[in-house]
Amino acid sequence: MSRRALRRLRGEQRGQEEPDGDLDPEPPVPVAARRGRSGVSNLFELITAEESEDEPPSREEEADSRLGKQDAAGGKNKGAVTEEAEGDGEEAEQPVTQPQPVLSNKPRKKKKKRKTKKTSAGETLEDENLEDIDSLLEKIEDTSGLSQQTQGGIITDHRPLLYVEHRNLNPENELKRYFGARAVLGDQRPRQRQRHNARGTWLATPKDTWPRYSKTGITMQLLDTRRGVQYFTFKHHREYQQVQFKFLDAVESMDPNNIVPLLEALEPYHVDSLLQLSDVCRVQENQEMARDLIEQALYSLECSFHPVFSLTSGTCRLDYRRPENRAFFLALFKHLTFLEKRGCPRTALEFCKLILSLDPENDPLCVLLLIDFLSLRAREYTFLTRMFQEWESHRNLSQLPNFAFSVPLAYFFLSQQEERSELELSQARETAARLIQLALIMFPSVLLPLLDRCSVQPDARVASHPFFGLNAQISQPPALNQLTALYVGRAHPLWKDAAVMAWLETNVHEVLHVVEAGDPRVEECEHKRKTRYQSAPRNIYRHIILSEMKEAMAALPPEVTSQPVLGFDPLPPLDSIISYTRPERTTRPSNESTLSLFFQSLLPNFNLQGNIGRNRDEEAGVGQDLNQGVNRLMAAMQDMLANIQFQEPPRDDNPEGDGDWD
Description:
Residues 1-127 are annotated as: Disordered. The protein is 56% helix and 4% strand.
């Protein structure tokens, strides 16, 4: 029995005693009758009524029922008072009989009503917590007007296409749906999470191991607003520009160790340094550190957002031509790559939509080559089909191999959902068959590499047919070869399902019938392949480099592979908008001879002009030391040349051999 119940029990017994201490022989008064009296017989009831807000009302009724039983049995008042005296000495020292004041009952009844209302609300919340969180959020969205309707057998959403939800930017929410909150958070309570985060952020959550954040010298500026679209840009202050210049010097040294002092001493949240070191850690297979550095870069950039800049509206733009904005694009892209490898495709899709919303017209990182794959992995088939319907008219998405094959695959998966009506299923099946046949006619070179990556052997008719054979891969333009290699290398796991392969096989044979019948669409698609895809734009090359897909990297042209590619700014735009320039470094005198330049390459400390301004004595001593060093160097070179021995190549004893190549 709790202390409050005992206190109520003691108070009720005192209220039933006469001034002379005798017990009232009348039966106990019911609870409802006692509450209806004009006065309060026990002072402790007023205290209990205010303090027991968190207790359920059943305890009070239980205490009253126990009081009635004890009064009926009789002779137990003393024991109850003694037990209370042991639990609370101060209460035991008070006199047993006290004059009870007559108080109004209205405030007490009002508190009781509040108490009952609060308790019922708490019980309701406990019942609602057992429901799925996603279903509750869907109800909230339906009530806010963001409902979904069915058009043409497919559910369509009235929200903007590139609408970003904050809750989908947190990978922990996706992991909770897969494994449960207990597996993700462990023993950590929800109230204890993110307590160290003094500033609410959506893109990344700061950790205790990170350096303390302070102003980094990066701000965001609103440039213009046109037709409801806001154009922003990041801006580097003078101090940050100085750090940027030192970072460029460190990059030119080709030593990553020169970047670390910049983060330790000058600016721990220098974004380009974090991006470059992340690539170094990833090459060294330190994935955890690489991901952590990218999150630090995102956190630093988000803390410098303009107050009007919104991640979810889809109407905020950033120009990739400005070097200050490129770090944000690259950090988002590398972060979604880590999320996809981590097993969070839904969160990665949300970041992909965010990148596309920053510049949907130019798409500097060409995330259109990736968004279909993430949609299929996240099972967001409706989003992919809606994007194809809305953007096909002005973006020609069907001319990209990834959309040409992924959209019919999405319709096929929609046709397998049993919760849809029969009309919706039949429409989805017809659309999937029609689109996959058009994709096979337009891009026949995708089929055999896709089957090879899926470890599926095609039948003899398909393998020997010239339409899908080796000739289809050789005759295609180089740009199309890059796109097909990128799609096959990335999306082939989606086609390994047995039901998908059976559906693909049926449509491949239908395409062969169309080709053999001489359908004019075959010749039309062949003409499109020859006239288009002659050279890929620069954003596609940039996407292939960032994706690091081996098949696509091997198909890059020499003009791209021959130039150095930096992780913090791969293939910068040719029409960049430069806001500040790097100061020119000190150049060597133009009158240096070839011999002095040669010694400069061998001895970095050698400087022919460095002795100007010294006195003649020092000049003579330095010149003598220099001559001695040159003599030693020449002697070493002569010794090296004298020890070089040339070996004749081995002769072939059988020059008329078979000549078979491995």
